[in-house]
Each structure stands twice: as structure tokens, then as C-alpha cells.
Amino acid sequence: MTRSILILGGTADARILSGKLAEESGYRILLSMAGRTREPVKQPVPVRIGGFGGADGLASFIMENAFDLLIDATHPYAARISANAVHAAQQAQVPLIALERAPWQRQVGDRWQAVADVNTAVGAVGSSSKNAFLALGRQELLPFEAAPQHHYLVRSVDPVEPPLNVPDARYITARGPFVLEDEITMLRDNRIDIIVSKNSGGTAAYGKIEAARQLGIEVVMIERPPHPCAATLPNIEAALTAIKHQLSLLENRGE
């Protein structure tokens, strides 16, 4: 019997996991992405773009398409989607495996100011004018219009449209991974005083954090929301092991 796996993605981890699963013969795999990125990276498996209409819609999609397993490999900050995955898996009565890469850990020399959300991050940048590097997605940028005194350098995967309504903002459109040496040069050339970042984890975006440590630049670190899944897996290898285990349980039960 061909087993069917639905992966909620949008991250490099989801792409790599999908590719590794595709190498296992016999799996029917569908990777679902929200579609926020205009030009997503090519994926190794069939892709579905768009939302489901909440947890109920996701559960219906799982049952209507006879998926055996649901994998949440979304971004660590996609709390609403992850919560929908938990409820949908319960409704559809399918196992859920949640992959959440480990967060970055504070190292000796890091000057981190931990904050709970973007709005708090705006205030944490300070009242006096600074050269601030915003390493955030387009959706998180709007609150910084409340602090027009700063000089902003914004880096995002897609162009910021419309641009921020502030006197001074410059934009870089780029996709990681970013090399440490290039990050050091970028921060120096732009005389960056402070960085605002989410604690995404992984290696692709870590260069700016290491560069900030070497240059003594303060980082306003937006902490992750709690993951709604009781148990998450920290890496792709652990997720693959869990997937094979869940599928073997289905085989043993004759489902």
C-alpha cells in the first residue's frame, strides 16, 4: 500500500526533508506552502500553494485525500499554522510529526536583548537615532514606521512593497545562506549600530549573528512563540526516523 504524506513547509528544512523522503520509493508526498514568497525555491516533490481555511479545512483536506501522516515543517514563528496542524491531526486521526530546528544559543560576546514580539523590538531599538539593520520578513516591518528617527537597512527575500513610510530606509533583496565575511562587510560598510532579528535557528541566516558578535553590535532578538506541539524534533534526521516509525506502526496495525 502506498503511504501518503502531507508536509506543511516553507522552510529549507521542509525542502530537504521532502527530497529525502522522495528518495524512499513508494511514498506519495505533497508539500504545502502558504505562498507568501513570490519566487519560491524549486521543490523536489509536488507542491500545493495556499491556505486550507483553518484547522477544520486542513483536517478535511487530509481526510479527503487519504493522507496517512502530517508533518509540520513550517517556520518556527508560524505559530498559527502549527496550532492548526495540531488540531487538524486530531480531527483527522493521523499522526503529526513536528520538525522545529533548534534556536540559536547566546554565546560569549553576544550582546542580545531578548524581546517577545516585533512591537516590543521597535521600542528596544531606542529613542535616539541609530543605523538599524532589520533582518525580518515583509510582514514584520510595518511597526517600525512608529520609529522614523532611525536609518533602516532592510533585507528580505521579496521586495518590500510598498516601502516603509520613514524618511530613510534602504533595501536589500537576497536569499540565504549568507557568508560570515560578507555579513561583516555589509554591517561595517553600512555602519550598523543595532540588528533586529528573529531567532530562526539553523545555519543559513546565522552569519549576521556571528558577525555582530565579532563587531560588538547589539542584537534585538525576537524570541520564538511556544510551539503548540507537545514534542518537536530538532533536526531532519530525527524527523526521518520518526516518520519511518509511524509508518511502520500503520503497517503493523494493518491500516
Topology of this protein?
Blueprint: E1 3-8, H1 12-22, E2 27-33, E3 47-49, H2 54-64, E4 69-72, H3 79-92, E5 96-98, E6 112-115, H4 118-125, E7 131-135, E8 151-156, E9 169-173, H5 180-189, E10 194-198, H6 207-215, E11 218-222, H7 236-253
Parallel strand pairs: 1-2, 1-4, 2-3, 4-5, 6-11, 7-8, 7-10, 8-9, 10-11
Helix pairs in contact: 2-3, 5-6
Give an overview of the whole structure.
The protein has seven helices and eleven strands. It has 255 residues and is an alpha/beta fold. The protein has a six-stranded parallel β-sheet with strand order 6-11-10-7-8-9. A five-stranded parallel β-sheet has the order 3-2-1-4-5, sandwiched between helices. The longest helix has 18 residues, at 236-253. The protein is elongated.
Cα-to-Cα separation, first versus last residue: 9 Å
Q: What is the ordering of alpha helices and beta strands?
A: EHEEHEHEEHEEEHEHEH
Rounded average pLDDT: 92
Number of helices: 7
Range of helix content: 25-40%
The amount of beta strand, in percent, is 15-25%
Instruction: Characterize the largest beta sheet: strand count, sense, and whether it forms a barrel.
Output: 6 strands, parallel
Form type: elongated
Q: Please state the CA-atom Rg, rounded to the nearest Å.
A: 20 Å
Instruction: Give the total of beta strands.
Output: 11
The helix-and-strand class reads: alpha/beta
Can you list the strand order of the major beta sheet?
6-11-10-7-8-9
Which regions are unreliable across 5 or more consecutive residues at pLDDT < 50? none
